[in-house]
UniProtKB/TrEMBL annotation:
<keyword id="KW-0812">Transmembrane</keyword>
<dbReference type="Pfam" id="PF05940">
    <property type="entry name" value="NnrS"/>
</dbReference>
<feature type="transmembrane region" description="Helical">
    <location>
        <begin position="335"/>
        <end position="353"/>
    </location>
</feature>
<feature type="transmembrane region" description="Helical">
    <location>
        <begin position="104"/>
        <end position="131"/>
    </location>
</feature>
<protein>
    <submittedName>
        <fullName>NnrS family protein</fullName>
    </submittedName>
</protein>
<feature type="transmembrane region" description="Helical">
    <location>
        <begin position="304"/>
        <end position="323"/>
    </location>
</feature>
<feature type="transmembrane region" description="Helical">
    <location>
        <begin position="22"/>
        <end position="42"/>
    </location>
</feature>
<keyword id="KW-1133">Transmembrane helix</keyword>
<feature type="transmembrane region" description="Helical">
    <location>
        <begin position="359"/>
        <end position="380"/>
    </location>
</feature>
<dbReference type="InterPro" id="IPR010266">
    <property type="entry name" value="NnrS"/>
</dbReference>
<feature type="transmembrane region" description="Helical">
    <location>
        <begin position="177"/>
        <end position="197"/>
    </location>
</feature>
<feature type="transmembrane region" description="Helical">
    <location>
        <begin position="270"/>
        <end position="292"/>
    </location>
</feature>
<keyword id="KW-0472">Membrane</keyword>
<feature type="transmembrane region" description="Helical">
    <location>
        <begin position="62"/>
        <end position="84"/>
    </location>
</feature>
<feature type="transmembrane region" description="Helical">
    <location>
        <begin position="240"/>
        <end position="258"/>
    </location>
</feature>
<feature type="transmembrane region" description="Helical">
    <location>
        <begin position="143"/>
        <end position="165"/>
    </location>
</feature>
Length: 393
């Protein structure tokens, strides 16, 4: 039932397309989760979910927050790719309810097997909903997207299996492999939309030059990294892994140089995308240095990925997609530009300042929370009201 496309849109705008409930619910959840994490860091709160707060934090920011936004974006984009109406109405409500139950399941004193089932069912169902129109239209270029969603779901199952068996190694490998699979998806989708959005946003209507060799090289390296985490090649420094991380950093840097246009720095919806993607470079370089034997905390590189790249790209993409799919002009108020900037400052605090003072942890969380609060304040009415042009969606 969840995968049946709809031909008529529901009366409530919130359930018209996937981006609406999942952008709204995902960003609100991330805000609450960050505030809860801040309370734990300062000792003001002491919740006790199964497995502890650290396990909850690293699972939920990836498989709760990021997975929701990925679902919302892909369930909306697949309509454009296939020409088949996207998931809406009751099927979309059911999928969103399943995601919401997953977030609440940590604190409902449910049996462990039921928590695992609720949590682990979401991403496979998202992949199934995507696969139907993609296979029906034989959109072979989008088959990797479905595979990536399934692989992220497999990483969640590995993480949950580690939680269920109290196997810290499985938990860590599952989360880190999942993070780098999200980075792989960012590489695939970023390669499609960032140069396109940049050229269109600056009034350049010529086609984006195709560089398939660069895209394939990025995808190959990006997929190799999470597989290396699953098999344990990143449990301790390995010189060959330093070469792989360094190569991927160079590939991402080459992409950014080729996509660059100095006019983008005048447009918040553009510079936010480029700066977020740029965080993939220090994330890769930091781990390359760690594998090469440099005394660096790999957590710093991981948070360059999670705060700078992942959260930065999520907020930038939500801001643009929400405008485009509600028929509004692609212009944001100055406050949204500040939200983009706060994400960048949160990443800088978490990566560059934390080594010198632990207070930067709390500062980073508060800056990220401020960015999400600004986004919600501005986009809540946009996501819950009908399109301004009267079209369905």
């Amino acid at each position: 039932m969840l995968v049946q496309p709809v031909t008529a849109r529901p009366r409530q705008a919130l359930w018209a397309l996937g981006f609406r409930p999942f952008f709204l619910g995902g960003s609100l959840f991330a805000l609450l989760a960050l505030l809860l994490w801040a309370g734990v860091l300062v000792g003001a709160l002491q919740p006790n979910p199964p497995g502890g707060m650290l396990a909850w934090h690293r699972h939920e920011m990836l498989f709760g927050f990021a997975a929701a936004i990925i679902a919302g974006f892909l369930l909306t984009a697949v309509q454009n790719w296939s020409g088949i109406p996207g998931l809406g109405g009751r099927p979309l409500q059911g999928l969103f309810l399943l995601w919401l139950l997953g977030r609440a399941s940590w604190f409902l004193l449910l049996p462990a097997w039921l928590i695992l089932l609720i949590q682990g069912a979401f991403l496979p169902l998202v992949a199934l909903a995507l696969a139907r129109p993609i296979i029906r239209r034989r959109l072979r270029n989008n088959y990797p997207i479905v595979i990536l969603v399934l692989l992220i779901g497999a990483c969640q199952w590995l993480t949950l299996a580690g939680w269920l068996t109290q196997n810290e190694t499985w938990q860590r490998r599952g989360v880190l492999a999942g993070l780098w699979l999200v980075a792989a998806m960012m590489s695939v989708l970023g390669g499609r939309v960032i140069p396109f959005f940049t050229r269109r946003g600056l009034g350049n209507l010529s086609p984006t030059p195709a560089r398939p060799w660069l895209d394939r090289a990025c995808l190959a390296c990006s997929v190799a990294l999470p597989l290396s985490y699953v098999v344990g090649l990143n449990d301790r420094p390995q010189p060959p892994m330093a070469l792989l991380f360094a190569a991927l950093a160079l590939l991402h840097g080459a992409r950014l140089v080729l996509w660059h246009d100095r006019g983008l720095w005048r447009v918040p919806l553009l510079w936010s995308l480029h700066l977020a993607y740029a965080w993939l470079i220090p994330a890769c370089l930091g781990l390359a240095l760690w594998h090469a034997g440099v005394a660096i905390n790999p957590s710093l590189a991981t948070h360059a990925l999670t705060v700078g790249a992942m959260t930065g790209l999520i907020v930038a993409m939500m801001a643009r997609v929400s405008l485009g799919h509600t028929g509004r002009p692609l212009q944001v108020p100055r406050s949204i530009g500040w939200a983009f900037a706060l994400i960048q400052l949160a990443a800088l605090a978490r990566v560059l300042v934390v080594p010198f003072t632990s207070l930067a942890l709390e500062l980073s969380v508060l800056l990220g929370s401020g960015a999400l609060l600004i986004f919600l304040w501005h986009y809540l009415p946009i996501l819950t009201r009908p399109r301004v042009d009267g079209m369905p969606g």
